[in-house]
Design a protein that fits this description.
Blueprint lengths: L1 H13 L12 H22 L4 H10 L11 H19 L2 H18 L3 H27 L9 E5 L3 H6 L5 E5 L1 H16 L10 H7 L6 H7 L7 H4 L3 H8 L14 H9 L14 H5 L13 H18 L11 E6 L10 E6 L2 H11 L2
Antiparallel strand pairs: 1-2, 3-4
Helix pairs in contact: 2-3, 2-4, 5-6
């Protein structure tokens, strides 16, 4: 079921038109965006038979000249949508200038109305936006030419012979994606395996507990009933004594979530947050909160989100890990700008959106 839902979500995303919506706002650009939205809703209503009159009326009220859709066919609507997108893309090239013009006209209107203080605020806003665009261009010129990936990593020489061969240069330059991946993988294995030297993480203890701490011996220790031969099986007497006095606290964490908690968690989550290497990103869940003109009980977005909630709760209640939860992406970011030293790479693990939300809600308790 989860695989089918994921395929359906990705297929739905492919059908959406991707427009550059990060351009400067102005009344002219807003008019073009609304016109594109109008034709998208018209096509959806014509093709599926769904009643989109509520959404269409909202868009029509915001348009200066709403199009006449009397007797329009699906082919005609698609042609109108294509033309509306072309006009919109052309308008984005001059969006910043149109925004400045709109703000200046609004400032002049406020001055004529005797509202000098508000006019000054708008003028300052216009000046700040121009400065922001200027600095954005400068950052684009001087930024790293390839910020999305590591093309070079510096690592210390491992052997004494290598260090003696060139005492002035103690760093080795590693380039090439395969070599960098091998180097980082080796470093991560050592980095995340540091606990292997501790009493809890050593191989002898791991053999008793099992890699997931689900062995019978582990269960007995958590109940406060340590095996009599625990001191014989462990070479460290201090560790053996510690396990002898172990006992799980009586209080247990409630692992159930309500639909309201699940819904609120996605509602307040910033959509630009990076999640989900399976492409089932946060935007899929946030799109379900868009109004469709129906009451809460009949809202299609709420119904789809509730299905997500049921699948997630079924997995956690039965101790089943969904296949897409079992992979994550490890991002390595330079801590020092312009210095790709291996030991100065920050490691960030990226999990699936719904899995990350469950962890966030449960561990916050």
């Amino acid at each position: 079921m989860d695989r089918d839902i994921t395929r359906a979500m990705l297929a739905a995303e492919k059908k959406l038109g991707h427009l550059p919506l990060e351009q400067a706002w102005s009344p002219q650009v807003q008019e073009k965006i609304l016109l594109v939205r109008f034709w998208q809703l018209t096509i959806l209503q014509t093709r599926t038979g769904r009643d989109m009159s509520y959404q269409l009326q909202r868009v029509q009220r915001s348009l200066d000249k709403p199009p006449d859709t009397t007797g329009i066919t699906l082919r005609m609507a698609k042609s109108a949508l294509s033309k509306a997108k072309q006009v919109f893309l052309q308008s984005t090239e001059m969006a910043a200038e149109a925004q400045d013009q709109a703000l200046e006209e609004e400032a002049k209107a406020l001055e004529l109305a005797g509202k000098g203080e508000k006019a000054t605020i708008l003028k300052n806003l216009c000046r700040i936006k121009r400065q922001k665009r200027t600095f954005k261009k400068l950052r684009k010129i001087f930024k790293d030419s390839n910020p999305g990936r590591l093309s070079l990593v510096l690592t210390l020489k491992e052997t004494e012979e290598e260090r003696n061969a060139d005492k002035e240069e103690e760093w080795v330059r590693v380039s090439g994606s395969d070599e960098i991946q091998k180097l980082i993988t080796k470093r991560n294995l050592n980095h995340f395996n540091q606990a292997s030297e501790t009493p809890i993480g050593n191989p002898q203890t791991m053999q008793i507990f099992g890699w997931d701490s689900s062995s019978h011996t582990c269960s007995q220790i958590m109940k406060g009933i340590a095996p009599e031969n625990i001191s014989e099986r462990l070479s460290d007497s201090v560790t053996a004594a510690m396990f002898t006095h172990f006992k799980q606290a009586a209080r247990t964490m409630e692992a159930e979530l309500t639909f309201q908690e699940f819904q609120q968690g996605f509602a307040i989550w910033r959509e630009l947050t990076t999640t989900s290497p399976s492409k089932q990103h946060l935007g899929h869940y946030r799109s379900l909160f868009a109004p469709d003109g129906q009451v809460d009980e009949e809202n299609l977005g709420n119904q789809i989100l509730y299905i997500h909630f049921q699948v997630t709760m079924a997995a956690t209640a039965t101790d089943v890990s969904l296949k897409r939860w079992q992979n994550c992406i490890s991002c390595h970011i330079k801590k020092d700008k312009g210095s790709p030293k291996l030991h100065r790479l920050c490691i960030i693990h990226i999990y699936k959106a719904d899995f990350n939300l469950v962890l966030k809600l449960l561990w916050s308790r």
